[in-house]
Amino acid sequence: MASRDDIKFLSNPKIGQKKKKYCRFTKYNLKYVDYKDPDFLKGFLNEQGKLLPRRITGNSLKWQRRVSRAVKRSRHLAMLPYVSDQFK
Amino acid sequence: MRHYEVTFIVDPLLSSDEIKGTATNYVEHLTNQGANVTHVDEMGLRQLAYQIMKRNSGQYFSIEFSYENGSLIPNLELALQRDGRIMRFLTVALDKHGVQFNEDKRKGKVGHVREEELAKQAALEEKEQEEKEQEEKEPAETVKASTDKEPAPQDKNQDSEE
C-alpha cells in the first residue's frame, strides 16, 4: 500500500509543459543526410539499432524517408549494425 | 553531368601500400573511362559493426566522381565485385545537395571534423601566429599605434547599443 507521501500529484505535472516535437532537418535547414556519418544517424535508432518511428523523432515524412534510406546504406557498409542487443 | 560516389571497404590485413594501391587503382579505372574524379576520401581504419569475411575492421575509401550518365557504373561494380581485396562497396548517385554537403564537409563547415584535419589546422594557425609574432617584434611602433586606435571605435559601438 502506498503511503500518502508517495502520492504527490493526482495528475502528471509535466502535462502542459511538454515541448512540441519538431523536424530537426526543416528547423535547422539541413539539406542532406550523410550515410557515412553513423554517429549522427544513431540519434534516430533505438538500443537494438532499429529505426525509431516518426512519432518519436518528430521528423517530417520527407526526411524520415531519407533518414531511413541513409540508415540502410550505412548498415550495408557495416557502419551501423543490422541487429544488436546492446547498441549505443 | 551527374555526380556519383562509390564507397568501399578494403581488407585491412593487406600492407598499407597495397591498400593505397587499390584506391588509386579505382581512381585510374574511373579516369581512364573519362570520368571526372572530384575527390578521394581516405576515411581510414574503422571498426565494423558486424563481421565481413571474418574481419572485424576495414579500411574505408570514398571516391566522388562525375560523368555524363551512369553507363560506366556497371563496369566499375563488376571490377569491384571481382576484386578479392574489396570487402564491401556501395555506389550512390548524389543530388546537388549531396555535392554541396560533401564540399562543405571538406571545408569543415558541416559534420565532424576529423583529428588529422584538426591537427593540420592547428599547425597552420601556429605558423600564422609565429609569423605575427615576428612581425610584432620588427615594427614595434606600428603595432603600438594600432592598439591606441582600437579602443575608440569600441566606445562608439557601446553608445549605439545604449
Give descriptors for this structure.
heterodimer, A: 88 residues, mainly alpha, 30s Ribosomal Protein S18, B: 162 residues, Alpha-Beta Plaits, 4 strands, 51% helix, globular, disordered C terminus
| CATH architecture level-2 label of the domain at 24-76 in chain A | Irregular
Total helices of chain A: the number is 4
The profile of the biggest β sheet of chain A is: none
Computed Rg of chain B:
24 Å
Order of helices and strands of chain B: EHEEHEHHHH
CATH class (first level) name of the domain at 24-76 in chain A: Few Secondary Structures
Structural class of chain A: mainly alpha
Question: How would you describe the shape of chain A?
Answer: flat
Give the strand content of chain B: 25-35%
- Please give the share of residues in helix of chain B: 40-55%
Strand content of chain A: under 5%
Oligomer: heterodimer
**CA distance, first residue to last residue of chain B:** 54 Å
Please outline the major beta sheet of chain B. Answer: 4 strands, antiparallel
Largest interface: A-B, 19 and 22 residues
CATH topology of the domain at 2-109 in chain B: Alpha-Beta Plaits
Q: Which CATH architecture of the domain at 2-109 in chain B?
A: 2-Layer Sandwich
Structure characterization notes:
The complex is a heterodimer of chains A (88) and B (162). Helices cover 32% and strands 0% of the residues of chain A. Chain A has 88 residues and is mostly helical. Chain A has a domain at 24-76: Ribosomal protein S18 (30s Ribosomal Protein S18, Irregular). Chain B has a domain at 2-109: Ribosomal protein S6/Translation elongation factor EF1B (Alpha-Beta Plaits), CATH 3.30.70.60. Chain B is globular and about 65 Å long. Chain B is α+β, with helices and mostly antiparallel strands and 162 residues long. The chains are: A mainly alpha (88), B alpha+beta (162). At the A-B interface, helix 2 and helix 4 of A face strand 2, strand 3, strand 4 and helix 3 of B.
